[in-house]
């Protein structure tokens, strides 16, 4: 009788007694507001408590869950998670260990917060017009002497992991995979235009020629002059420096031009110093998500300037050698870019 019972039940039931069902244990979320003062929060998350609370109100409708089902993560913890990821660029598992959430939750939070901030782009990144454009021109004039400047334009590469498809399109001239980000800034190093969708192989001049900003200038919907490096074509609304200045007039123009155009390089340096994720390699599987992260960081950069938070423009030098020079503009019914550049150069010598 005993042998039959052992055969029917099996020997394992005698060796390993049945365990009671396991209950899932949840870790208590860690709120850094309870452990750090305002300066420590700013050092770790790049923003003070007041700005983070402002972000809670701004992004709350996009990040809040309709119910508490599944232990929904509070909006503040979601924002702090994304800010820590932007500020450090470290592994998502390390971010989760700090705030006591899983790696998968960190991934979902970074995506949700990045897209929520990117949707606020039109609210924080706007090209100057009207009275604001005149203020920007005045500030640029104080820095270099060339009048009528509404912005400095340039592109910067953000390193990414090798994408799954069309890998060759993302290899830039330096030999690594990247996204080429175009931006325009004003005299306060605040971004007024950001275009984040082109792969690293795209030339700066090509990105600008296919942008809505270029179409607006061509159609006369935007006024003023942009300053760009030798990688752009010299146009009536986009002035570039002289190649190999041959006279004192051209040399003086190049110095004034560089003094004003350097603001966009400083803006990129400040952006990448504040958000180290852009200075290293963004380890996200999709280039679309990378672009959302870049735009989100640009929105936060402008927000920091508006709220008079400390900047980081003097720490990282983002200057890059210009790409192959583009062909000069031949004009569109009016004066061409080189003609206007010559007139401004002569006026600078008389000033």
Describe what you observe in this structure.
By secondary structure, the chain is an alpha/beta fold. It contains 14 helices and six strands. Strands 1, 2, 3, 4, 5 and 6 form a six-stranded mixed sheet that branches. Helix 5 (75-88) crosses helix 6 and helix 5 packs across helix 7. The longest helix has 27 residues, at 248-274. The radius of gyration is 26 Å and the shape is elongated. Mean pLDDT is 86; it is low at 313-317.
How many angstroms does the end-to-end distance come to? 114 Å
pLDDT < 50 runs, ≥5 residues: 313-317
String of helices and strands = HHHHHHHHHEEEHHEEHEHH
Q: Structural class per helix/strand content?
A: alpha/beta
β-strand percent reads 5-15%
Write a compact overview of the structure shown.
By secondary structure, the chain is α/β, with parallel strands linked by helices. Strands 1, 2, 3, 4, 5 and 6 form a six-stranded mixed beta sheet that branches. A hairpin with a 5-residue loop joins strand 2 and strand 3.
